[in-house]
Design a protein that fits this description.
By secondary structure, the chain is an alpha/beta fold. The protein is about 40% helix and about 20% strand. The chain has eleven helices and nine strands. The strands form two sheets. It has a seven-stranded mixed beta sheet. A two-stranded antiparallel ribbon has the order 1-2. Helix 2 packs parallel to helix 5 and helix 7 runs antiparallel to helix 11. The structure holds S-adenosylmethionine.
Length: about 300
């Protein structure tokens, strides 16, 4: 059954997800298509692990979930769109806030993530989930608030997504976004990635956008104001995350990694892998306490803005 608010006019389907193929051809963004296919496959694979480790827990960067919902100033009776809702980390909180007179729609391009979000929100009558690419959302009604947590950097054409959001926000409606700070402010990512990239130069596949491009207040503000939003406010938080000892940190990184990246790491010789691990360990030393436990700072930006 198509969602009653959703206008179905798509003509290309990748693993059950609708992508407007004509639009991709028109804009000659074929690399987008490859990247998107890969991203959908990745999230379909890792969503259950992501949910278990991160999204369902109020730890480390996910302390942002309650902050975002607060700053978005969601009221009883509101219609809210949670874009790239994933496994529903904030969708659940929003649904409680809007109450039975409100309406929440969660959109994501991963069926596996949506299935988890649905299961976590069983029997809620004021909530629906739609499988779609954020670039191609089409609704026949407007929302009071659009939220998007930890996803804007994944969209290769983030500007287009922001313009879509604007189109489906009511006048004076609120956009509320959460993003990771740039890589140097999130050593959880940079300690490993800065080193891996030296050993496996194609670790980040071709066509992947720069995931760090909205990681400072200035970069984020510029992108949001370019899309025509006003009253832009950005709050910075530094949360802490405790991944355990270096060995826990590294083992968990491998455990939660997608299959293609695991395969790339496997191509290294034992000696190269040990060298890489040693260099990663060096990077974590500034954050390692005397008892061997790592405590990482984790910068997060939360933005609110208005549709004029
Ligand atoms: C880091 S997760 C964030 C999920 C959720 N907002 C949260 O806070 O846990 C990123 C999500 O973005 C989704 N995503 C990535 N690109 C997308 C796109 N173009 N359209 C819709 N969803 C997308 C992924 O499937 C994934 O569920």
């Amino acid at each position: 059954m198509p969602h009653p608010l959703f206008v179905q006019d798509f003509d290309y389907i990748i693993k059950g997800i609708v992508i407007n193929y004509r639009e991709l051809v028109r804009t000659k963004k074929f690399t987008y298509l490859e990247y998107k296919k890969r991203l959908i496959k990745t999230w379909d694979e890792i969503a259950p692990r992501y949910h278990k480790r991160w999204a369902k827990n109020n730890i480390g960067p996910f302390r942002s979930s309650s902050e975002l919902v607060k700053l978005a100033n969601i009221q009883t009776g509101y219609a809210v769109l949670d874009l790239a809702c994933g496994t529903g980390a904030i969708t659940k909180r929003i649904t409680t806030r809007v109450g039975s007179t409100g309406k929440v729609v969660g959109v994501d391009s991963s069926i596996s993530a949506i299935k988890i979000a649905k299961k976590e929100n069983n029997h809620k009558t004021n909530l629906d989930f739609v499988l779609s690419d954020a670039e191609f959302i089409k609704f026949n009604k407007k929302f009071d608030v659009v939220t998007c947590q930890y996803a804007l950097f994944f969209f290769p054409n983030a500007h287009k997504v922001l313009q879509n959001i604007k189109q489906y926000l009511k006048k004076n409606g609120t956009l509320a976004l959460t993003l990771h700070g740039n890589k140097d402010s999130v050593p959880y990512f940079s300690s490993i990635l800065d080193v891996i990239i030296k050993f496996i130069p194609d670790y980040t596949p071709q066509g992947t956008p720069n995931l760090d491009r909205f990681g400072t207040k200035e970069q984020l503000k510029k992108a949001i104001s370019k899309a025509g939003f006003t009253n832009i406010r950005i709050q910075e938080y530094v949360f802490t995350y405790r991944p355990g000892t270096f060995s826990d940190y590294w083992q968990n990184y491998l455990k939660y990694l997608s299959k293609p990246l695991k395969e790339k790491i496997k191509t290294l010789s034992i000696i190269q892998k040990q060298k890489m691990k040693d260099q990663i360990k060096q990077k974590t030393i500034p954050y390692t306490k005397k008892n061997g436990q790592i405590i990482f700072p984790w910068k997060v930006l939360i933005l609110t803005a208005k549709r004029p």
